[in-house]
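Input/output pair, single chain:
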Amino acid sequence: MYNTLNEALRSEAARGERGITFISGEFESVFCSYPELYESAMGTLHHLRMKGIGAGDEVILQLDNNREFLIVFWACLLGGIIPVPLSVGNNEEHLAKVVRIAAVLNNPFIVSDPQHFEKLGDWASRFENAVDRQLSIGDLMKQPEEKISGENGAVLPGDIAFIQFSSGTTGDPKGVVLTHSNLLANIRALKERIGAGDEDAFLSWMPLTHDLGMIMFHLLPLFCGTSQYLMPTWLFIRRPILWMQKADQVGATILASPNFGLKYFLTAYHKAASKRDFAWDLTRIHAIVNGAEPIDVGVCEQFLEELSPYGLERKAIKMGYGMAEACVGVCIQEQDESFRTYYVRRDFLRVGDSAVFLPGDGQGDTLALAGTGTPIQDCRVRICDDLDHPLPEGTVGHIQIAGDNVTSGYYNNAEATEKLFTSDGWARTGDLGFLVEGRLTVTGRTKDIIFINGSNYFPHDIERIAEECADLKVKRMVACGIYNERTGTEEAALFVQFRDKPEEFLTVSEQIRRHLNRVLGLQISVILPVHKLYQTTSGKLQRYKYAAKYKEGTYREIESELARLQRDQEVAAALTRRKPDGEIEQALFRVWSDLLGRERFDLEDSFFELGGTSMLVVQLFERIEELYPGVITLTDIFGSPSVTLLSRLISGSHEPKQTRFHMETVHLSPQYFQAAENGAENQYRMNLSGTDRNRLRSLCLNRRVAEEAVYLALLANTLYEICTESKVVVHTMMDGPGWVIPFCVDFAAIDTIEELLDLANVKKNPGEALLYHIGDIGKEVARPKEGQALCYLGRKEWRPQQGGLPDHFDMMLEWEEAPGTAVFTFGYNAARMNGPRMRELFLSFADALESLLSLDIMAAETAPQ
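Output:
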């Protein structure tokens, strides 16, 4: 096949059948065949040579016109010249970026139109011999009068094809070196993965300065010898409906869009659909590649739902993962595979965590992540810890890649190149994720993660949840972390694109703040309106700019104005707001104000909507305990979350306070309560072998359940076999230290182990019904009656430091993580329970775990291939 991109263009030029249609409007377009592209590029190469530009020289492309851009791009490739595509911008930041990149290069030339070069102004003067190295696109497009010499025949597979600077480059820019062999390896793999052939038609609005636009939607269709249709990005922004309109008109089969584009299209579609009927035929589309930014599963589902009436198939959406350092593609779904959604616990996504899979969405702690498929041909992916050691499947870690499509490094930047690669030659992507059955799922960018109180928050997740607020007249939100120098901690900030009056924004910000408090338990320190949306040419949010500008004081004026308006509103509200009445309400109000850092709030406001977290609620309880010892339990705060309700509970004026709460038990026959009279052993241990641990991980990945859900299901089933009733209750501490959640199951309604596992996998949050704190048990719970026992399951590291579990429970199963294994400890209350029977119970649990793992292996081995 081809050894260089030049060979591919030359081959397609000889065929003379297909080419590029440059779309400039609903009815305006220009067709350029591949033979025309080759001839025009050769003419431009002649002009470049006349300017003294030869093989190995660098040429920055600053061109808005897609046709002119590609002619100059190919002229450079055919002559062994190195093109450097850069998006065109008019603001000072874009112009400064051109100068920074020029400083990385070896005194480059720059191609633009005269008007744009004037905009460079003083910036252009910073180039060495800037005037002499300026090339006007008008001159390069002229038909040469002299005889055109041939292309450079010395171009080799290992030669640099072009330098790809990231669209989001900040600070010191890094140019990714892409050779002909890198690009052809990725193009061949993409062709095979999405099933592209010479009968396909590619349609794209992505900029050619972006790797997705250039490689997947220009070089790939050329390699396939098929037609390509290119819309300028500005046209999509102005008329997003035209994207699908053109897909219908030209019979496009392969498209692409990042999440931003799908959402932007849907907004325009909803407005237009109410005014007109579309008669699109989208049945020919077999791939819409979604990548380039975090994928929102909800947007993809909505996109499919809205366009399915036009014949768009579900499997047409192809989730992908890639980066410039890999040319463009690393992973994409298989041709006949619909995209997969993994629902995971968001609080188990740190490096080294085993991803905890849930059966579905609908809970505040659940994060929906899109699988991006398996690695494409000649590209490998692994997940590693912070020391670059590979991690097993299902474990969150750093995504690293290797393969023929991976760059050799950054242009003229040995230091950055050294940091890119591990000691054994794998490239660090800067992304986090996990593998399931060889399929990659990305959880977020390492540098974007916001660390607050030991928890990780992903900005795109915060943005998605914030946008759930009803009736918000906002276009988009951007979350990022900001550093509070006074406290020495990181805080979360949210910048909201909002163009109405600041007075109206106060209502919006309060809605957002309360919603995020309630759903995520996250206190947003800063919520500000912004007019400008900083994003790359592909629509990727540039969060770092908001954090930098906040630190510089750019938003200080609007922040002060909002604070003044807030004070004015509070003064007005204070005139009608009920003041704390009586000693208890006044004391509680002072405690709340101190902990929440708020002097003004309604007495009926929920502690959790005002910013109360699981950490603050414990502090609140401790403060109340100092004032009114032994009057309430920590659990009571969730049932009475306002100053008014809690005051009534403490004073006893609302209703009589229950001095004890009931913990449900399991019912056992008398033989299990014949305690030994002498000091029998009351604790047993079991280590899970490395082989069994791997089998357990595989089972959890296949069934999409957490490991602790397996332990809970098996313990409940083991208890059911010895219970005198069908109902089993296990009190669990699996969702956070201190919080005990009863798992109740009636085995009369359970038919299969799958049902039991799904039930055990459901997560509950602090504040929900049937939940209490371990600290309340000793004071408020009566001991079980004869024939009844309390059973407990929990992580060993969450065991309470004060007061032993045997003081509260009769049977206790704990587990702890260890390198390559899990260690189980089973204990029991020797004063009540029969030792030999307890040992039999623990052995039955161990046998049940072994049987489940063996059955799962057998099922996998006998499954049809």
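Confidence is low (pLDDT under 50) at residues 653-660, 765-769, 857-865. The longest helix spans residues 835-862.
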